[in-house]
Design a protein that fits this description.
Elements lengths: L7 H11 L7 E4 L9 H16 L3 E6 L9 H14 L8 E2 L4 H13 L3 E4 L3 H8 L16 H13 L8 E4 L14 E5 L13 E3 L1 H12 L3 E5 L6 H10 L7 E5 L2 E3 L6 H9 L14 H7 L3 H11 L6 E3 L1 H15 L2 E2 L1 E2 L2 E6 L7 E7 L8 E7 L1 E5 L20 E4 L4 E9 L5 E8 L17 E2 L1 E3 L4 E8 L24 E8 L11 E4 L3 E5 L10 E6 L8
Parallel strand pairs: 1-2, 2-3, 8-9, 10-11, 12-25, 14-20, 18-21, 23-27
Antiparallel strand pairs: 4-5, 5-6, 6-7, 13-24, 14-17, 15-16, 17-22, 18-19, 19-20, 23-24, 25-26, 26-27
The chain binds adenosine-5'-triphosphate and magnesium ion (MG) (2 copies).
Catalytic activity: tRNA(Gln) + L-glutamine + ATP = L-glutaminyl-tRNA(Gln) + AMP + diphosphate
GO molecular function, one term: ATP binding
Protein name: Glutamine--tRNA ligase
């Protein structure tokens, strides 16, 4: 598997360092604050911050905030949190493209002065018509030959707020016959009479992405501007601005393939629709492929970073099997999550040869290999085991199960032997009677009749009811994005079940966001917001085995 130390961009950087084009590597991660980061962004975060780390350089965080009407401080805060949670630290202060609005404006004036930009009055529809098509050259705008003086005057008046939104735009004068549509006199500035979350009401004209990005890179001394493949066609324009403006540096753009995951949508617009239409509880709903959703689901930063290493970086967009993400998650939790006990479908077992008030604390390590400490578990006369661990009749198939006359080991505790059971009117077993085999704490019975199975259990009198939120995939279709229908049609309406389970008392006392393997049940995490000692809440992160997917 590829990893960041070997990807093609790392090779380019190594060459650039070797031949002296750059002495210090500077990358940037440039989110637009118009939504929460998703798993695709995690790939870009890991790549940009990872390259800076690998080459001893730095990585800036720059909010690409040129569309104020869709952006907000809430999104800025969430993005900062997500990057920090992933374990990365941006260099110095946070940057905003809007920090450069004055400079960008001056550069727009430079372009007008050098005859490289003009104010155009075509409506959006007309401009589209004039632009031509892939097979047909565009036509010059009737406003293309305005004089420098006229353009300077009109642009100043655009800025002063004299014209309505859409009435005029500033365009670069490049080549209406270019085979690259991005070079057919692209828009640099448009009129938007909206408040900006950083610059307030200072501006009523805003630069667009293309006019902002490369120059912002140049201002910040970015050496390698890494973006996704859909910007490949924008690179000539990126370079045109750098060649035609007195910028302080010459950054270079490199493109890599974006991450697409099956059973997942990775588009902020679609994720926003899921939130707005209340299909999920919010951007950080544990079913969301947002970083904050994954966090709440129980992903660890390490599992996300390992996943990004596993998928590697290439120059093609591919579909990644969600099983790879699940593997990275399960592998990390298997290695690192403490083990604890939770009974989801309780069946009461009464150990009749113990006194009513028997209370013995049994000590249990949280992990079989790592030193994660231990806890004391109350062992009492009445306990819960899982309904599925008891069978009314013995059979070879069920030899690890608890059946009358047979023995079972209670994990971290004693061996018990079933004597009889009771059923309700529907025929369900509702209670099992048993005897404890003396002297079996940590050792086998003296009589040599060793139990075949080990089961998890919780004290019935000291265990604590907990809310478990059992999540499944949010989409029933492998590519909800790429079908003919609306992706909303493929929402799994049954993706959350809430049940009450019994947990050992220690679990009520853990803080939020603690990962556990509930032995024989799955990986769970204490909910980031709702978990409390008097009302424990755990989210199902992922099942124990490959066939129990997200
Ligand atoms: P979306 O398409 O979801 O709206 P975006 O590309 O518009 O995403 P930005 O905030 O502009 O979102 O993205 C910040 C950075 O993250 C960009 O450099 C972008 O290329 C990268 N990025 C976004 N989506 C992915 C993805 N699926 N895989 C890899 N990188 C991505
Ligand atoms: Mg973008
Ligand atoms: Mg976008």
């Amino acid at each position: 598997t590829a990893n960041t130390s070997a990807n093609f961009i790392a090779k380019i950087i190594q060459d650039d360092l070797d031949n002296g084009r750059v002495t210090q590597v500077v990358t940037r991660f440039p989110p637009e604050p118009n939504g929460y980061l998703h798993v695709g962004h995690a790939k870009s975060v890991c790549l940009n911050f990872g390259l800076a780390e690998q080459f001893g350089g730095r990585c800036n965080l720059r909010f690409d905030d040129t569309n104020p009407e869709k952006e907000s401080q809430e999104f800025i805060n969430a993005i900062k949190d997500d990057i920090t949670w992933l374990g990365f630290q941006w260099a110095g202060e946070i940057h905003y493209a809007s920090d450069y609005f004055d400079q960008l404006h001056d550069w727009a004036v430079n372009l007008i002065e050098s005859g490289n930009a003009y104010v155009c009055d075509l409506s959006a529809d007309q401009a589209r018509e004039y632009r031509g098509t892939l097979t047909e050259a565009g036509k010059p705008s009737p406003y293309r030959e305005r004089t420098v003086e006229e353009n300077l005057d009109l642009f100043a008046r655009m800025r002063a707020g004299e014209f309505d939104e859409g009435a005029k735009v500033l365009r670069a004068k490049i080549d209406m016959a270019s085979p690259n549509m991005n070079m057919r006199d692209p828009i640099l500035y448009r009129i938007r009479k909206v408040h900006h979350h950083q610059t307030g009401d200072k501006w009523c004209i805003y630069p667009n992405y293309d006019f902002t990005h490369g120059q912002s890179d140049a201002i910040e001394g970015i050496t390698h501007s890494v973006c996704t493949l859909e910007f490949e066609d924008h690179r000539p324009l990126y370079e045109w601005f750098l060649a035609n403006l007195p910028v302080p540096a010459q950054p270079r753009q490199y493109e890599f393939g974006r991450l697409n995951l099956d059973y997942t949508v990775t588009s902020k617009r679609k994720l926003k629709a899921l939130v707005d239409e209340k299909v999920v509880a919010g951007w950080d709903d544990p079913r969301m492929p947002t970083i904050s959703g994954m966090r709440r689901r129980g992903f660890t930063p390490r599992s996300v970073r390992n996943f990004c290493d596993m998928i590697g970086v290439s120059r093609s967009d591919g579909m990644v099997d969600v099983a790879m993400l699940e593997h990275a998650l399960r592998d990390d939790l298997n290695k690192n999550a403490p083990r604890a006990m939770c009974v989801i479908n309780p069946l009461k077992v009464v150990i009749e040869n113990l006194p009513e008030d028997h209370l013995e604390m049994v000590s249990a390590d949280y992990h079989h290999e790592l030193d994660l400490g231990s806890r004391e578990m109350p062992f009492t006369r009445e306990i819960f085991i899982d309904q599925d661990d008891f069978k009314e009749e013995y059979s070879k198939k069920f030899k690890k199960k608890f059946t009358p006359g047979k023995r079972i080991r209670l994990r971290h505790s004693y061996v018990i032997e079933a004597t009889s059971y009771e059923k309700d009117e529907q025929g369900n077993v509702v209670l099992v009677r048993a005897n404890l085999i003396e002297g079996t704490l940590g050792t086998n019975p003296a009589d040599g009749d060793n139990p075949k199975g080990v089961v998890h259990w919780v004290s019935a009198s000291h265990g604590i009811p907990a809310e478990l939120r059992l999540y499944e995939r949010l989409f029933t279709h492998a590519s909800p994005d790429k079908t003919d229908g609306d992706f909303m049609e493929y929402v799994n309406t049954d993706s959350l079940k809430v049940v009450t389970a019994w947990v050992e008392p220690a679990l009520a006392n853990v803080g939020p966001e603690n990962n556990f393997q509930f032995e024989r049940e799955g990986y769970y995490v204490s909910d980031r917001y709702d978990h409390a000692t008097d009302k424990p809440v755990f989210n199902l992160t992922i099942g124990l085995r490959e066939d129990k997917s997200l």
